[in-house]
Design a protein that fits this description.
By secondary structure, this protein is an alpha+beta fold. The protein is built from seven helices and 27 strands. Keywords: Membrane, Transmembrane, Transmembrane helix.
Length: 515
């Protein structure tokens, strides 16, 4: 395959993923891969839900006109080594976990306003199922039953992030801004409400002024305890392991409220085995983590404080109150602010809402140019939006992705499966790792591609369209490096997300057979 020069699209060529899917013909030799919404920015969650709904509808339309098109949706990581490697070895990325962090503040975007004749570039964006690099060409066939709008919507529990119990309010924060989301159908509105309820977070405590770190969640003073097996006795494959977690502040006092972002995993480094646990927030400073026991031998528990509840308060504020982006260009340009929602001011607004998908995008009109002069868009870094001392809530090795110690043994020994099946275990994990390989719990067979020849055989004669973030870009780069032959008529395209949320200038990469 030959790597062509990056394609830079003009303003007229800007596309959303749903629009691009509507332009695909589709065929048995066409493969469409999605790995989207990995980098969360400061936008309301409804933005992501509605965009995914539109992408799903476009996929259904594609399957209507070309039923044999292969659709691959990447929702888990077949090589998430963090599940079974040590804390020092692993990257906290992978299947079924969304790690939200504030970094230095808000991410920004910028766009150019130039004369109409100076068309150059535009774009691009972000996305979210967290994915890690490893080419696993899982040739899933037709997902129409899962994607069809005629089917009831099914929710996959998030095993790796804190699950709220009891259910908390999902009322969206009120922001005085200009937003023009198109109305939803009753079915889509119901789905959105159910999705919002499924990710609802409990109300976190308001931050005092001045902020005192001593009264916030401290992983070093917190602890977890493995509870005895139900009915006593030993642990067996097929049983359920339960862990109690107590969160305390820097003074060692137990917290009285919930809302901390915890992650729990069960792993065995020697076996290359690991599974994420379900975390339940009891809203009083205590939590439970539940794991299925899926392999024989040692199983080590690890609980991580990803963010204290006080940091969640800050993140909620950043998401709901500060979703601004900056746009600018070269010497003949003006800088202005753009976003899905803009605060109401006396400044005129340019409306760049997509006419086909209804995706909203607004910019404050530049003082000396018309709205039609906007042609380019790129990201420029982070805007500092943290208040005084709030950065103390995001300290590595202090309260950001720090392991919580065990108050007793941190692991158990698992014996072979009992002859009589347990009737009380209800596994909600989608799968686990064993010997470094992903195993699905729903019976789905995951084919492993361990060499370039097997990948080539799978993709021979195929046109592969990749849509996603930098991880899917690594798929593209891997394919280009691993399949150097020119005889298999493999075409691969890569599109980095869809406008206009964030990331660098839009580039469309294409690989083509030499002939």
């Amino acid at each position: 395959m030959v790597l062509l020069s990056p394609f830079e699209g003009s303003f007229e060529e800007i596309r959303y993923i749903a629009n691009e899917l509507d332009e695909l013909i589709g065929a048995p030799n066409t493969v469409v891969v999605f790995g989207i919404w990995a980098h969360f920015g400061s936008f309301p969650i409804e933005v992501y839900i509605r965009r995914l709904q539109r992408i799903r509808s476009a996929v259904v339309r594609l399957l209507d006109r070309a039923p044999k098109t292969v659709i691959i949706i990447r929702t888990a990581n077949p090589k998430a080594l963090w599940l079974y490697e040590t804390n020092q070895q692993r990257l906290v990325l992978g299947a079924e976990v969304v790690t939200v962090s504030a970094g230095a503040g808000q991410y920004h975007e910028e766009s150019s306003f130039k004369g109409r004749t100076c068309f150059t570039i535009f774009l691009l964006l972000l996305t979210a199922f967290l994915i890690f690099f490893q080419i696993c060409c899982i040739c899933l066939t037709y997902l129409r039953k899962l994607l069809s709008v005629s089917q009831p919507f099914k929710f996959q529990p998030k095993m790796s992030s804190t699950i709220i119990y009891p259910k908390a309010t999902t009322e969206a924060p009120k922001v005085r801004s200009i937003c023009n989301f198109p109305p939803l159908s009753p079915k889509d509105a119901l789905e959105e409400r159910l999705l919002l309820e499924s990710v609802a977070w409990p109300e976190t405590p308001a931050l005092p002024s001045p902020l005192s770190l001593e009264l916030t969640s401290d992983p070093a003073h917190s602890s977890f305890t493995i509870l005895p097996a139900r009915g006593g006795g030993q642990w067996h494959v097929g049983d359920q392991l339960e862990v109690s977690i107590i969160i305390s502040d820097f003074k060692g006092q137990p917290k009285k409220s919930g809302g901390d972002f915890l992650f729990a995993r069960l792993h065995n480094l020697t076996l290359g085995a690991g599974v994420a646990g379900k975390v339940v927030d009891h809203l009083n400073g205590s939590y439970s983590a539940v794991f299925p026991l899926l392999w024989e031998g040692a199983a080590q528990v690890e609980v991580t404080l990803v963010h204290p509840s006080e940091a969640i308060t800050v993140l909620n504020r950043l998401t709901s109150e500060q979703p601004d982006s900056l746009f600018r260009s070269g010497s003949r340009s003006e800088t202005t602010t753009c976003n899905i929602c803009l605060r109401q001011t006396k400044q005129p607004i340019c409306d760049f809402t997509d006419p086909r998908t209804g995706d909203p995008w607004f910019c404050y009109k530049p003082k000396n140019m018309s709205c039609d002069a906007r042609i380019a868009h790129s990201s420029v870094g982070y805007k500092q939006t943290l208040k005084a001392k709030e950065d103390e809530l995001f300290q590595g090795r202090v309260n950001l992705k720090v392991c919580i110690p065990a108050s007793g043994p941190a692991g158990v020994t698992v014996l072979p499966k009992r002859k009589v099946e347990s009737s009380i275990v209800n596994f909600q994990a989608s799968g686990y790792y064993y010997q470094g390989l992903w195993r699905a719990l729903d019976g789905t067979k995951v084919r492993q591609f361990t060499c370039a020849s097997s990948i080539t055989q799978c993709l021979k004669g195929k046109v592969v369209h990749l849509y996603g973030d930098s991880t899917i870009r690594q798929w593209f780069e891997f394919l280009n490096a691993a399949l150097p032959d020119y005889e298999n008529k493999i075409m691969v395209t890569f599109r980095l997300h869809g406008p206009p949320l964030r990331f660098w200038l839009m580039k469309k990469f294409v690989t083509l057979p030499m002939n």
